[in-house]
Amino acid sequence: MASVPSVQDAIVFRVKATGLQLRRWSLNRNVRWPAQSEVSQGDRQQLLSESITPLWTPHEASERNLISGKIQNLRVAVRRIQGIEIPIGEVFSFWAQVGRPTRSNGYVIGRELRQGCVIPSVGGGICQLSNALYSVALDAGCEIVERHAHSQIMPGSLAEIGRDATVFWNYIDLRFRIRSVDSAIGSVRFEADLTQDSLVVRLWGIPGVNPVVSGGDSVECSEDARSLVSAHTCQTCNVTTCFRHQPVVQASQSVTAYLLDEYWAEFDRWIQSQQRQAEDLLIIPLDGKRWKKSNYAWTMTGFKTIKQARLQTLRRSLSSRKIPAQGSTRQNQLLIQDEALAKVYAQQLSPEISHVVVTQTLLPFLWRDGVLGGRSFEVLMTRLPIAVLQQRLDRASELHPESLTLKDFRADNTLLKLEQAALQAAQRIITPHTEIANCFPHKSLLLNWQLPTVQPRSAPLPTQTILFPASTLGRKGAYELRSVAQALNLTVRVLGRELEGDGFWQSEDGAVETDRTFTDPFASLLAVVLPAHVENHPKMLLKAIALGVPVIATEACGLHGLEGITIVQTGDVESLKRTLKELREMHETRVSCNLD
Predict the structure, then answer these.
(1) Are the C-beta atoms of 378 and 427 separated by less than 8 Å?
(2) Binning pLDDT at 50, 70 and 90, where does residue 1 land?
(3) The CATH number of domain 256-446, selected from 3.40.50, 3.30.160, 3.90.70, 3.30.1050
(4) Which position among 7, 170, 284, 431 has the lowest Cβ density within 10 Å, counted as fewest Cβ atoms?
């Protein structure tokens, strides 16, 4: 601008804008816009057009705070665009879909181009989305009903090639009628996502009847006779006499948030080894050390900002007392609790957070809600991916069709796809579990398992007793162990409940002697045996290794390469029988030598 903006200018602008907003409201009050459809009724058969634009450009480095705000605003706006499906012939309106950009709707201070200046403004930056939508509409052959160019061309934006569309609630809109040259396309579906560094907008053609569309609304477009100009910005112009001027606040280059749930010693040690900045954020369910809750005993030193979800954690604790120990009801309730905790955590993330370390249980819900868009993130993996996990349970169910626990729950396909997409986008997968790490060979960080501290003791001579360190469940290998114990006449010391049904250890092939009267589960053992199909956190196996007790387990236990453990193939009864038989013979030989 030729002169410095004044308060009077701002008042005049506001009055004019209000009048125009009222006029637009009057014109639109009887218009029925297409509703958002979360799930497409057809298949995405044809990609009509695509726009990929960077979230950061080099000239914006000095405005990191405002760009972080812009990205947050885009996170909110793209959720209102993602998945909408509009029939051929209908009109798309930016403001009808996105809604008013207010703080109550989740918008924050971003950067807005107004009257020749880039100023801080609530909702600022969502023009990047309207630009992208205008671009895909042009490429898809849509009829532009209303479009307005920006007053200046910002370097690095689509305005450089004349594909920008400025918007201002609600009198400056972007509207276009959906058209297609392909008669087989009956509607289009919008996809809008934020990757770590880009805004991606796609328009897909959906099969259906393509109606003949006649001319409609009059075209309202601004002239585009601009030259490349760098607008003044409130953080870089140095005009301190302007009433909009604000001191430059330099944000850190990378602020990280750690979103944690159940305590794992391996993850805790890794987090403490990371270089952290003062602005980094730790979010946990509650202070486990203060409240003597070992499952939340995260180390909090080194963090200036620590937030807790005490109320949600209390709700989860009370709810968990009412749900069954096993079954689909339990698994559904656990997912509901994970989703609720993820929502609480998401509310604590400020726009300045550029990197997230997140526990796997929270991942699909944060991804679905767009919280991870525009950010890099790493995942603390505590179990197999849902898709792999369910395949594993399906195979185990084929081996043991009589087991109800192996087929009583499968996650919703939507949740499966959400996790798959999030894991694919993750920068790195972090886990001590070798089988989980092998699922991501090119981006996994394998941590060392942390053996617990145990009191040294003299080990008595082994007996014919083996320890099954789990509840009696098919996924823990109960059927395989029962078969082997019967064949070798072994006594099974069982932890936990018999969730495969009463009398599980007394089958048609014979009864297995069980031991439930012990005081020390690791005393006088031949071995600790866990032939699991699924095992996420093998705490008891780690304790056995620390005590020097022989351990026999499958790859599913994730301990491959650790000393003191023998690995057998999952579901292979003969391999397990052979390994136990050899171990017993070795110990019998040792006992015989000691007696001699």
Answers:
(1) yes
(2) very low
(3) 3.40.50
(4) 7
